[in-house]
Design brief:
Blueprint (H helix, E strand, L loop, with lengths): L1 E5 L3 H14 L2 E5 L2 H10 L4 E5 L4 H10 L8 E5 L4 H7 L5 E5 L5 H21 L6 H13 L6 E4 L6 H10 L8 E5 L5 H9 E2 L11 E2 L1 H4 L4 E5 L6 H13 L1 E2 L8 E2 L3 E6 L3 H6 L5 H7 L2 E4 L10 H15 L6 E2 L1 H7 L7 H15 L4 E2 L6 H9 L11 H30 L25 H15 L4 H8 L3 H10 L6
Helix pairs in contact: 5-7, 10-12, 13-15, 17-18, 18-19, 19-20
Length: 490
């Protein structure tokens, strides 16, 4: 591991240097934030140790300026520090630990063992987050990972169940052994049995030779069975035998083969419901659910989103051999308010799309392509409106629908105007310029839209961000509407 120590205290430096030498770790020492900033920007730091006897404001500024470089770095604070200062220091970092002074070598070594385990989880498995839900998940992994028990991981599609499984493997006694992930839903019944348990020559049409199954291939390692709720009944029986007897039998074979494999299963379905429907064996359910880790969806841990964005951005630029880029704080906070129904997988696709479509070093809200923003906010559910009369709620929903309709009509008009000649169409008919709400009235969609914007600004006391959220549109769209309708401070 690469450790960076920022401290001007000789006694702290001696203790950390002794620890690094004993463990064979790579240690860099900085006595000031300028030197530390240079080291952080040029190297991948696994563990950052901060001496809190340095000026608090200086440390806070340092962690803020280097946050995009430290998305995968574990922080250890040394010295007395109140809770408010500690939260400010760790606000942009994925994890932090604290130890008081004076440093005692034994205590320091014990703390560093946990810090090193956390760093392994972050670096090798890519599991980062600072929300209470994610911290609880990580603490569970650190506690049960070294044990041999079978684990069931549950959660929505895209939350990172395989990442959790890999994190468990990295801190287990099998970390240097194979890890194999199998998607049970992607394989047909006969194929799944052959892939998992292997088959003998001639056991079925096309079996021209003996095949070694995944359980044999991953012997002494870990196998991750994703979407285990999709396993057919016949395969469930075979899997139950593996869990109970630690042995398999190849398809078409007659000999039992002992296997030493840790099983981690995952599902986005309610297995208890499947048990009640008798499509999933009750005895198998209890065998795989020795311990359950429920992974929360991304919308329930928005504070993790900026960290994930930093990590995804850094990984994408490195893998694509591009200069290091980043999203600014406004953009990250804006994206943190989206619901992300596809969870981490959807967020990764969004970030990579943004990086592919822009060449800016710092990506702000204005630089994100509008169609990408429209896509993530189109997936939002309608907000719960409290303390409002039914008439008020109805009017706001009508306003929002009208705004969306107006935007759609504008896009259609532009499409016809720009490309209609290719298909034999001329200018759009005059009737498309103004769409009356009711025949015979003078109220247009533009007027309704303008009034909706004004009402939203009044309800939010001029707060444009809240007004945009109330209207269900992006802030950039709201700014254009303010200019279009010449709406000044309301």
């Amino acid at each position: 591991m690469k450790i960076l120590l920022l401290s001007a205290d000789p006694s702290i430096r001696r203790t950390v240097e002794e620890y690094a030498r004993a463990g064979g770790e790579e240690l860099a020492v900085a006595t000031g934030t300028t030197e530390a900033r240079s080291l952080v920007s040029s190297e991948d730091i696994d563990i950052l140790i901060l001496d809190c006897s340095l000026r608090s404001l200086e440390l806070i500024a340092f962690t803020g300026e280097t946050a995009e470089h430290l998305a995968e770095t574990v922080l250890l604070l040394i010295g007395p520090l109140d809770q408010d200062q500690r939260e400010k220091l760790s606000r942009r970092l994925s994890a932090h630990y604290a130890i008081d002074t004076p440093l005692r070598r034994q205590v320091f070594s014990e703390v560093m063992e946990r810090v090193a385990m956390r760093s392994t989880i972050v670096r090798k498995a890519g599991l980062i987050g600072k929300s209470a839900a994610m911290e609880e998940t990580v603490q569970t992994i650190m506690q049960v990972g070294p044990t041999p028990i079978t684990i069931l991981i549950t959660g929505e599609s895209g939350v990172g169940k395989e990442v959790i499984a890999r994190a468990i493997h990295t801190v287990s006694a099998r970390a240097d052994k194979p890890f194999l992930a199998v998607s049970c839903a992607a394989l047909a019944e006969g194929v799944l049995e052959s892939e998992l348990f292997g088959h003998e020559k001639g056991s079925f049409t096309g079996a021209v030779s003996r095949r070694i199954g995944m359980f044999e291939k991953v012997h002494s390692g870990t196998i991750f069975l994703d979407e285990i709720g999709e396993i057919p009944p016949s395969t469930q029986i075979r899997l139950l035998r593996v869990l109970e007897e630690r042995e398999i039998m190849r398809v078409g074979g007659t000999e039992s083969i002992s296997v030493d494999v840790r099983i981690i299963a995952a599902t986005n379905r309610d297995l208890r419901e499947l048990v009640e429907k008798r499509t999933f064996r009750r005895d198998l359910y209890y065998r795989i659910k020795v311990l359950e880790i429920a992974v929360p969806p991304l919308r329930k841990r928005p504070e993790d989103i900026p960290l994930l964005i930093d990590r995804m951005t850094r990984r994408y630029t490195i893998e694509s051999n591009l200069p290091l880029r980043r999203f600014d704080e406004e953009a990250k906070q804006y994206l943190s308010r989206a619901t992300w129904p596809g969870n981490v997988r959807e967020l990764r696709n969004f970030v990579e799309s943004c990086l592919a479509l822009t060449t800016r070093t710092v990506i702000g809200l204005a630089n994100i392509p509008e169609h990408l923003l429209a896509e993530i906010y189109r997936q939002h559910t309608l907000p719960v409106l409290k303390d409002k009369t039914p008439e008020h709620v109805e009017r706001e929903l009508i306003y929002r629908t009208l705004i969306e309709l107006k935007n759609d009509l504008t896009e259609i008009k532009d499409l016809i105007r720009n490309h209609g000649a290719r298909f034999g169409y001329g200018e759009p008919p005059r009737s498309m310029e103004v769409v009356p709400i009711q025949p015979g009235t003078e109220t247009t969609l533009d007027e309704m839209e303008r009034q909706a914007v004004i009402d939203a600004l009044r309800q939010t006391q001029g707060n444009r961000r809240k007004a945009a959220k109330l209207l269900g549109i992006g802030e950039r769209t709201l700014y254009r509407k303010l200019k279009q309708y010449d709406i000044r401070k309301t």
